[in-house]
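Replying to the earlier thread about multi-chain prediction with a worked example.

Input:
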Amino acid sequence: MTPSPTDLPALRAALLAWFDRSGRALPWRVGPEGGRDPYRVWVSEVLLQQTQVARGRVYFERFMEAFPTVEALASAPIDAVLKAWEGCGYYARARNLHRAAGIIAQEGFPAHYAGWRALPGVGPYTAAAVASLSGGEARAVNDGNVRRVLARLGGERQPTERWVQARADELLDPARPGAWNEAVMDLGATVCTPKNPKCPECPVSASCAALASGDPAAFPAPKVRAEVREVRAVALLLGDTQAAVLERREGTLLGGLMGLPTQLLAPDELPAAALERLAARLGARVTGELGTVTHTMTHRRVTLSVYGGEGGPPRTPVAAEALSRLDHKALALWERREGSLFAERKS
DNA sequence: AATACGGGGTT
DNA sequence: AACCCAGTATT
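Result:
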């Protein structure tokens, strides 16, 4: 049920009062409302894309330590940026952040939504967030929290992006756009949660159509997700966990990160065949199998068989490079090889 | 409108 | 094992 226009001020006042009392204290929420440090806000928003706050917070602190200013970020090598991002996923975010930092270092921070939106890695959500939180501009954000909160308030089971944005635009408090955006997201994250929402604690429960329906958690309906595909590959560990042959991954999957030389198996291909191709390409000799690891990456499940070998290109220090979790799992097999197990075996 | 893109938390 | 997370870029 859409609140009538006369309810709107009351709804805004109720949520903002709750926010002023119960909003989260977060490390990027520094500076005056609507006038926050654009660098911190921008970095945090990119870091928090599809990443939970608890996790993003750890990376944020690490990132600010390594790159305290946009100039520091712009002048840093991309490898250092990826290393700071290691393990956080969606590495295009780090590559785009670095590219955008170069632009900002030249031209200064964008003054408005459109300028933010033009930067690589800044979409409608991030542009609205930074423009409102840092610039005081009246732009309504639309993220997973907003989608859920508004779907429930409006009693809409299948909210389209268009519907959500339209509702968010209507509700946005033009007097406090930054605080309003943070308030809706805080409500979604702490009260109006996906499962078991805490409706008794909700400052706007009286206006909630989903609660009135009796089953608020049923709003919005779950999104249909693509199936997880199976992928098989072989990898060659030439060296050890300290120094090994590493290659830079090209393309979109883990692009920019370093990793063990890897060969995907064609459908129905035997690992031995792919391994032979891989060893031939590197000019290396396979000495034995270290084991198999599996790794799930939302949309695909990778089964990677790892082999040890000799020869091939020069080894490089592993610790300095940014590796995916998959490669860390592969490297961990080295510690479990026969000799090591024997040496560490206790009586 | 779909799909690719990481990795992990919560239920 | 679902379902989700302060989304974006590319089809």
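Chain A has two domains: 9-218, 229-346.

Feel free to reuse this layout for your own posts.
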